[in-house]
Amino acid sequence: MFSKACTYAIKAMILIKxxxxxxxxxxxxxxxxxxxxxxxxxxxxxxxxxxGLLVSTIGxxxxxxxxxxxxxxxxxIVEAIDGKGLIESCVLGLKKCSSLNPCPVHEKYQxxxxxxxxxxxxxxxxxxxxxxxxxxxxxK
Amino acid sequence: MFSKACTYAIKAMILIKxxxxxxxxxxxxxxxxxxxxxxxxxxxxxxxxxxGLLVSTIGxxxxxxxxxxxxxxxxxIVEAIDGKGLIESCVLGLKKCSSLNPCPVHEKYQxxxxxxxxxxxxxxxxxxxxxxxxxxxxxK
DNA sequence: TGTAATTCGGATAATTTTATCCGAATTACA
DNA sequence: TGTAATTCGGATAAAATTATCCGAATTACA
Lengths: 140, 140
Hints:
Chain A contains seven helices and two strands. Chain A is mainly α.
């Protein structure tokens, strides 16, 4: 469904959002907080930054933050890391699949695509910060 | 969502089902019919055979068939190639994710899992053979 | 002003997935 | 009975994904 890189990205973003408000979140805190390999995670954070989903500050006491006032949903994160394929491509990999030239599952799969789209658009980072703090959900 | 191998498997099985009834379907026919690399496809067909989803006959005029009288749904094919991960594993990759110890999306993702499960269980190979013959759906 | 903490980016390595090659065995049939 | 068509399985290669390493640059702060 999602690449491993993408699952790291989602978890990292949720963690950063919930640790922010006041402070920045360092790579090491993130990697520990989501149980991911830190060097690999660093690459992913850079991708997110370049897409504008994160801001970073270099140097001692530096770290990552969700851009202030920006509201981010899961879809943006998924698209930033895995691209639009999940939503836009044929699930059977056909280049020319469309409603005029459908693959076998084209029609039935629309429902699932729509469900996924709804799910990813409706889930925004702040939805989770309370629960992370309460420890009613986990990231590792 | 599905591995490339799995998409080949699904398309191959649909093709074999629709070409069978009478005759066997050779590797070359399959690879052409679904536009896949034939040597790689051969490996996948072997996996399907070992899981009992295909039978094969060796030698000239040999080929592959869906086991007579056996009804096969997409879920069986997906599980045979990609394993049960899609349905059973946490979508964020957490080893210990459960309703007691949920990841952030655990609950909302249940809906999608259920939709996917329903979709894959309800779609069986014979559903497509008519449409393949009519050419109202395509495999490449 | 020096040092430690940190992000950044390039290079490389390991692992997994996808793909190719080839020789052996089997079978239909001319 | 010989040959062509075919499946089968092992070995290898290529490509993509995941992961590690390291040196450079920046910054806080003692």
